[in-house]
Amino acid sequence: MLLNIDAETCPFGCTYCFAKFGDYLPPTGLAELEASPELGAEVDILYPACDSDLFARQDFDSILRRVSRFGKSVSISTKASIGDRAVASLKALQRELEAVSAVVKVGISVSTKYAVPSIEPRTPSYKSRLRSLSRLQQEGIPSALALRPLLSDVSTDEYAEILEDCSELTDRVLIGDEWLDRGERVRQAQAVHGSVMVSKATVNWLPSKPEWSQRSQPGRADALRLVADNLGFRLFESDLDLMEDILRH
Fold first, then answer.
1. What are the two backbone dihedrals, phi and then psi, of residue 209, each rounded to the nearest 5 degrees?
2. Which of 184, 186, 163 is nearest to 233 (CA)?
């Protein structure tokens, strides 16, 4: 279950953000789930602040405490720096979830190594994200490199570099193509690398299951899978599959 958190907008300015799309409808709110917990009766995994960055919020520790009361596994994706306060909150959540055989996973989101200021303005630097992965590893908190969206104006070679940079910091990587807003990009891709294909796809992770356009490069996923395999990563194209892998191990 994806959860929307109201009141505080994301301070980051990622140019590909799907939460800004005209046909995006926010999912269930955390407050709504708290008022009607039966909505999550059949749910195994919660995704708090799915359309904003949890650790960019001032109240992230409060949100994690609220989420912990449901006793569900928790999946988080962030570009924010993971510091002492975030680690303390995550460790507390981890201890509570272990008691009910659930887990917390933090994916560190990266979509470019060299163009962060233009593609992801107001986000922490690329090196900051490597430090976050390293900190999670040191603290024993399950993590993943979230290499998504794969952007058409970022080369496959650059993504291979990112995989190599992170190969000693985590052993799981999640990839996914970029969604388009009503057939058009919010950000026009510049210096597109290689051939590009635009197709319609169902957004399975949204409750309403809308159909959006998706932009991809033929063969890129296979090329990155080969690089990932050679570096010892387990590569996933679904966060659900990644979470199931963590639960099995």
1. 50, 55
2. 163
Q: pLDDT grade, residue 183 (50/70/90)?
A: low
- As a whole number, mean pLDDT of residues 208-225 equals 92
Query: Measuring CA to CA, how many Å separate 196 from each of 14, 80, 110, 152, 153?
Result: 21, 30, 20, 7, 10
Nearest to 193 by CA among 149, 154, 150, 163: 154
Q: Which of 204, 200, 199, 201 is nearest to 240 (CA)?
A: 204
Query: What mean pLDDT is reported for the chain?
Result: 93
Q: Are 227 and 191 in contact (CB under 8 A)?
A: no
Rounded Cα gap, residues 244 and 176, in angstroms: 18
**CA 15 – CA 86 distance, rounded (Å):** 26
E strand or H helix that includes residue 177: strand 172-180
DSSP, res 192 = -
Closest CA to 79 of 138, 21, 29, 11: 11
Going from N- to C-terminal start, the domains of the chain cover 18-177+217-248
pLDDT, one tens digit per residue, over 120-171 is 999 999 999 999 999 999 999 999 999 999 999 899 999 999 999 999 999 9
Q: Please give the pLDDT value at position 206.
A: 87
CA distances from 99 to 66, 68, 71 (A): 16, 11, 9
CATH domain 18-177+217-248 topology: pyruvate-formate lyase- activating enzyme (3.80.30)
